Structure formats: structure tokens, C-alpha cells
Amino acid sequence: MEIKLVSPFDAHLHLRDGDLLKTAAPISARAFAGAIAMPNLTPPIASLEAANAYKARILAHCGEPFELVAAIYLTPALAARDLEGVKIVKLYPIGVTTGAESGVTDIDRYDRLFGAMSDRGAILSVHGETNGEVLAREAQFAPIYENLAKRYPRLKIVMEHISSIALVNLLDRYENLFATITLHHLLYTLDDLLGGRLNPHLFCKPIVKTAADRGALRKLAFAAHPKVSFGSDSAPHLRAAKEGASGAAGVFSAPVLLPALAELFEAHSALGALQAFVSDNARRIYGVAPAEKIVTLIKRPTIVPDEIGGVVPLLAGETIAWSLA
Amino acid sequence: MEIKLVSPFDAHLHLRDGDLLKTAAPISARAFAGAIAMPNLTPPIASLEAANAYKARILAHCGEPFELVAAIYLTPALAARDLEGVKIVKLYPIGVTTGAESGVTDIDRYDRLFGAMSDRGAILSVHGETNGEVLAREAQFAPIYENLAKRYPRLKIVMEHISSIALVNLLDRYENLFATITLHHLLYTLDDLLGGRLNPHLFCKPIVKTAADRGALRKLAFAAHPKVSFGSDSAPHLRAAKEGASGAAGVFSAPVLLPALAELFEAHSALGALQAFVSDNARRIYGVAPAEKIVTLIKRPTIVPDEIGGVVPLLAGETIAWSLA
């Protein structure tokens, strides 16, 4: 048994830089036709120039054609005149996740910028969490999404890595709200992270939530809801940065994404939705057109390595029923 | 400035066995006049004979007089005839925490035992969590506490290490329900565990919860509510068992308990309640009478070591405003 996916696209990917980039880039380039590279490096990728240089560094390690969109980090310095050639601007409220130290405090300050983005058709990609109590942060951000959606009705706004029902409920209420969903938010709940033993390798922002939240996300994914793209939010951190007291947030899912999605979708009789979820929706929503790349999955077990380039991948040591051919 | 505490008592303490016991026992014996030693070893301390042998092993390492009550683990094998000389029986619903593999599945099976405990004045100490979703487990246990309290009105039931408002609300509703509260549930919320970076050294069962839950616990502690004893639930695990993928639940708070409590109570103008909270209430509730021991705290900084006997203590590397004299 096999599945042929046409041009899978990862709409939310962290590739880092330096040695981690060398590890991560070829893994994603092998399985996907393209990706949106997130800009939360240190310093952030905050201009088109920096984004183009970063794209070149990424592509140098991909080893095959890869359609890359490098998102621009929204810092207070970004102005309407900097938007020329920019496709995606990423908004991090200050301090909410890895590399969000340069983010935004007062969204109202960006009225001119968001207006100019609407005019140019640039997309606003948002890490939608407040600085409130950790499990409530995403739900507390819902009214902010609603305000943005109403105030800029022509601005395409992507609610990134949604993890809770509160945001699922917004999707059909505002024409200009879209979303990405990760593999790990489809697979896990808070109980997997800390219900038994503590598993630092499932620690990410936003935190995985309840079974009800996961159920709502699965419903969207298994129906390939047309406003939802697959975005892995795969984010490699060295083992030492994840374990012990350093406790960095992020899940390195890139090495297992398509096999694990196939296994999950198959288990829920949703394989028919996989192509739209991992590719067609993103191509339509983002207007990207990667060169056609057929990725074949076969029903043969993948044994996930314990570590890849010093990074513990998602499902380390476990077996997935599907493999990349 | 100094505080003299008369016979502090730790009503919920894990001392382990072997090398960990050698580390833990003298630390608690130095600061406290006595403690209730919890029985979740492997195999569990499930008979009076095992409890007496364990007490002897503990006392051999205490280095000074220490009034020990060793609780008996409630396994399906425990019968009414085994209660002779038993002061405290500890109920672990199966699988809910470290060493709960031998615990109880069906509380209704113990009707005769609980009846016999009522007759003898033995105390039922309970880890009150279900096997439900991790943050709801304690609240889901509330009706089980209510059933026990109603069915055995003469049985003293201690709700151990309460962490949520749901259980705080039961305390004044049932005459025979009591509680212990830990230091870490008074200090932390889920945000400290995983709101920023992940801190495995704050991972415990029950999980630390919201600011509202912590607020309700603080209100009880700062008023030295007469049905509440201080019980640290201090539980040493070697660093390697806490960090990385092994992720054991438990916080080693014993090395910092009284100084950290003094600092917290002082910050909330509640020092007047400290004596009752850390000693008088437990002596009355449990009917224990340790030899008088005056423990003096002075307003001089404690710098908490990074590691003690291979175990990372609570507040490792931090400074507390008070010290044991």
C-alpha cells in the first residue's frame, strides 16, 4: 500500500541557523516541496534583505529544490515602506515563546503597517498568545484576533499552530482568518506532556491542551478544512537545551511528519483528506506554487532514531507504520 | 530578628530508602521534631512490621530524636485484623503518582477496613486524584471524598497535598475531612512549571495549578486553618531521574522548608500563623506528641545549594531571606 502526495508544503517551519540548520534543512527538503521559514532567530529576520540572506543559507543545505518563503519578523522598526517584496509578516507578542524577545507589545501601533499589508496582499502570521496564565493564553488572544479580523477585513491573518477550541471557533466566523495546525497538537494532550512522567520533548508553545481541544483540531484536519494548512512548527533544539533546567520550548517533528500524519489520518479513516491538508490548502491560501514533487509513502515501519544531530526527534525510539519511500 | 518554632512537624514526607534516605533523613530531622513518613517504596510499606522496620532504618540516619509515624500503604491485601497498632493508612488510587502501582482500584471494596479504622481511630490519608485528565484529576476526586466523609463520619480523612479550590471548598463542609498543604503548592503555579521554560524540578503530583487555586491554599495556610497541617510532600529523586526523558514527579523541598515558609508568611504578614500551620495543627489532628524541640530561624540569607547528594533541591541556587540558626 502506498500514498502519493503531490508537493507537500510545511506552512510553519523553524530551521534555525548554523549546525542546527545543517541538520534540519535536508530533512524537510527531502519530504516537502516547500515551506514557510519562521524568522525567530537571534537577531530576528526582520527585513527582506535578512530574509533573502537566510533563504540562501537554508537552500545551501537543502540538497534539492525547495520552495521557501521566509517570513519577516514584525519588530517595532518595520514600516510600510519595508513591505516591498514581503509575502508574510510574523507577529510575536513580546516574550511568549522562543525568540519572541523582540516582539510586539501594542498591536494598535501597527495600524499603518497592517493597512499597507492589506493593500499589498501580504499575509499576517500570528503567534496568538497573551502573557496570561499559560493554558488560557491562546483563548485570551481570541478577541485580539477578532479585532484584527474586523479592522482589516482584506488582510489575510493566519492563526498559527492553533491548540484550543476557542480559536477553532473563530475560523468560520471571519472570512479573513486562517489557521495552521501542527502534528503534535493533533497527536498529544497535556496528559502526554505531564500526566504520567514529564516528557520535555513534548514541551512546546502553545502547550498541548485537553482531549476536547485536540478533538476540535482533529475534526478540522481530518476534513481538510479549506482555511487550514498543515504547519509543523518543527523546531530543533539540542538535547541539552530541552532537558534539565534549560527547558526550551519546541518539538523537532520534521523527521517524522508525513509518516506520522499518514498513520494518524489512516487510523481515523481520513487518508482522503491528507493531500488537501498537507499541500493543496496551503498552496491556495498562501498563493505558493512549488515545483511539482511527488512524495511517496509506503506502508512499511519507520523506526524513529533516538537522536538526529544531537536533537531528540518527536517519537524518538518509536515505530510508525508508514515510511517515506 | 528571629522566629522560634516549637516542634515543627512535617505531616507528609517521603524519605525513600538506601542512599536517598541517607541524604534525606538528617535534613528533615534537623529542622523538624517529627514527620509522617509515606509508604510508597518499592515494594510498598504495607504492614505494621514493614513500617516498624522502615522506621528503624530512617531513625538510624536521623542523627537526632525524630518522632516518626510510618503510614501503611493500603493494598488489597490489607485487612481489619492488620490494623493493630496502625495509626495512618495511606490510600493511593492505582497509578496516580510515583510508587502508586500497588494502589487501590475500587474504594468500595474497603468498607470493612474503613469501618474498623473508624472504630480504632486510625486515620485515612488519601492521594486524591482520579485517572482523568491531569488538571481535572483532583477536582474529579471531590465527590469520592464526599462519599467517604458521609459514609464514615467518624473516620478522620486527610486530603493530602491539596492543590485546587475544589478540595479547599470541602474542608468546612465535612467535619471529618482534613488536609495537608505543601510549600511548593503555596509558592508556584502551572506558569512556574511551564509558562516560560520547562522546569522539571517543579514537576510533582498533583500538578501545581492556577493562581486562583494557589490563592485559596494560601488563604488556608496564612490563617492556619485548624483542619490543615503542613505536609511538605518533599520527595528526593536523583537529578537523572528528574531531568531528561525519565521525568519523575516529586519536589525535594526538605532542605528549604522552614526558611522558605518564613519568607512566604512574612511577605504576606502571616508570620503569626506559622507556628500553628507547621506544628500545632498537626499535633492536634494526628494526636502526635514529639519531644519538644525549639527550632530557631534567623533573618539571614540562605543560599540554596545546586545539588545535595545528587538531588536538585527546591529553590536550587536561589537565596532565601531566612536561615535555620
Topology, please?
2 copies of one chain form a homodimer.
Chain A: E1 2-6, E2 9-13, H1 18-31, E3 34-37, H2 48-62, E4 67-70, E5 72-73, E6 88-91, H3 111-120, E7 123-126, H4 137-151, E8 156-159, H5 165-168, E9 177-181, H6 183-187, H7 190-194, H8 211-222, E10 228-230, H9 239-242, H10 257-267, H11 274-286, E11 294-298, E12 302-303, E13 319-320, E14 323-324
Parallel strand pairs in A: 2-3, 3-4, 5-6, 6-7, 7-8, 8-9, 9-10
Antiparallel strand pairs in A: 1-11, 11-14, 12-13
Helix pairs in contact in A: 1-2
Task: Give an overview in words.
- The structure is a homodimer of 325-residue chains.
- By secondary structure, the first copy, chain A, is an alpha/beta fold.
- The first copy, chain A, has a single domain, classed as TIM Barrel, CATH 3.20.20.
- Chain A is 33% helix and 16% strand.
- The first copy, chain A, is built from eleven helices and 14 strands.
- Chain A has helices at residues 18-31, 48-62, 111-120, 137-151, 165-168, 183-187, 190-194, 211-222, 239-242, 257-267, 274-286; strands spanning 2-6, 9-13, 34-37, 67-70, 72-73, 88-91, 123-126, 156-159, 177-181, 228-230, 294-298, 302-303, 319-320, 323-324.
- In chain A, the strands form four sheets. A six-stranded parallel sheet of chain A has the order 5-6-7-8-9-10.
- In chain A, helix 5 (165-168) links the parallel strand 8 and strand 9.
- The model of chain A has no long low-confidence stretch (mean pLDDT 96).
- At the A-B interface, helix 7 of A face helix 7 of B.
